[in-house]
Design goal:
With 194 residues, the chain is of the alpha/beta class. It has one domain: Vaccinia Virus protein VP39 (Rossmann fold), CATH 3.40.50.150. 34% of the residues lie in helices and 22% in strands.
Length: 194
């Protein structure tokens, strides 16, 4: 679906009324297709600027008959600012965003207070924000940023260090599998909208 600087009628876009989850940066779309298949009662609005990934997910949707995904091949911040009304999303997924390893590049990381505020405002009460990363310093930054957003509450208990168990709907990616075999960690953060 094309980007337009106007509020999107989600029911019209999907041809039904259902909870909508925004996914930011789906890469090649393998996990997105898996989740959408597992959760047919939910709609998935997916933002990605990487054209080969958009093409790959479109191909998967066609081959697998997945009808609950819509793709906006545009920057997610513009989509949040102009296409999504406040309190309309049931969830947001941000899986394995670029960790920008070098300290001088940390400011480029996606999960920063201004974006988290926008995401929280677009979530309906009871909605959730689920982030995952395999880079511990980024996991720590995410936990700090999300914990300081007053519209969000951590669903994990203090005994877990603030990190959530991997929800059953999120599959292991091939990169995640490889990292786990090498002894690398993966951190899931699930925060609910108050």
């Amino acid at each position: 679906m094309p980007y337009r600087a106007e509020i999107l009628d989600l029911d019209a876009a999907f041809g039904r009324h259902a909870p909508t989850v925004l996914e930011i940066g789906f890469g090649m779309g393998e996990a997105t297709a898996h989740i959408a298949t597992l959760r047919p009662a939910d709609n998935f609005l997916c933002c990605e600027v990487h054209e080969p990934g958009v093409g790959k997910l479109l191909k998967r949707c066609g081959e697998q008959g997945i009808g609950n995904i819509r793709i906006v091949a545009h920057d997610a911040v513009d989509v949040l600012d102009h296409m999504l009304a406040p309190a309309t999303l049931a969830g947001v997924h941000v899986f394995f965003p670029d960790p920008w390893h070098k300290t001088r590049h940390n400011k480029r990381r996606l999960i920063q207070p201004p974006l988290v505020r926008k995401l929280a405002e677009r979530l309906a009460p009871g909605g959730y924000l689920h982030c995952a990363t395999d880079w511990q310093p980024y996991a720590e930054q995410m936990l700090d940023v999300l914990s300081h957003e007053p519209l969000l509450r951590n669903t994990a208990d203090a005994a877990s260090g603030g990190y959530a168990p991997k929800p059953a709907y999120r599959p292991l990616t091939k990169f995640e599998n490889r990292g786990l075999k090498l002894g690398h960690g993966v951190w899931d953060l699930v925060f609910g909208r108050v």
